[in-house]
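Bug #2210: token dump truncated for PEP-CTERM sorting domain-containing protein?
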Amino acid sequence: MNLMTRLSAMAALVLAVPANAQTPERIETAAFSMVNQWGDATDALLSDANGVTRISLNSAAASLNAATSAYLDGNFYGGLFEFSVHDGYRVTGFSFSGSFEGLLHVPPNPDGTPGNGLAYNSGNVEFSAGSRPYGILYGEHSMRVDMLDGAMPFDMSIGQLSLTTDFNLSMQGLILVSAYPTVTPENPSGIDAFASLRVVNPVFTIYTMAVPEPDHYAMLLAGLALVGVLRRRQKKYRQFYKIDRMILHADHAM
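Reproduced locally. Full output below:
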């Protein structure tokens, strides 16, 4: 069985897994509320201060995790996060961050030469943002890893926004792993290989700022006007003071 055939079989295995029962989870902050319409695990508010809100995607971490020492395994995750922006606030950007962690091990032959087994992993995550109802795409990113033995962090950011209306964030991910044993004359049944891959610490970061109320704008404009008046008076006073100094100097010179 070649590699492409194996991957096709793995994908079919993942997609054939029935979906779990899903219960929407709601997170409330001063600036917005978030509901994960497809979540089957409780996401958590990590922090919310100074216009920066961090939300742990526990549902994604629970799903995007697979390991095997016997042929094929995999997992899929899809999350649809509906955001409602509260009055008096605007959303200026958001990001999806985390890290891929993978482990690959193929047992060597008894003499230390590479074994004929196989350990493989592959992962992909996609992050996008758009208006609700749909129509405007604010941005999208994706990241893929293959044959990862170690850790690889990622951070997908979408910024320079000013959203005061509802919007959606969506995240999809796919994890595939496979492992085939090393077969030797001494071990005709094979020595197990191992492959794993997972997404660790997936987090949404939402950036917000307060929108000044109309009376705050009025006070700001009044303050700017007062500053302008004071500056004009100061300039006028300096001019008169300069003229008086010149006259006084002329009197002393006579």
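Output looks complete on our side. DSSP finds three helices and twelve strands in the chain. Marking as cannot-reproduce; reopen if the truncation happens again.
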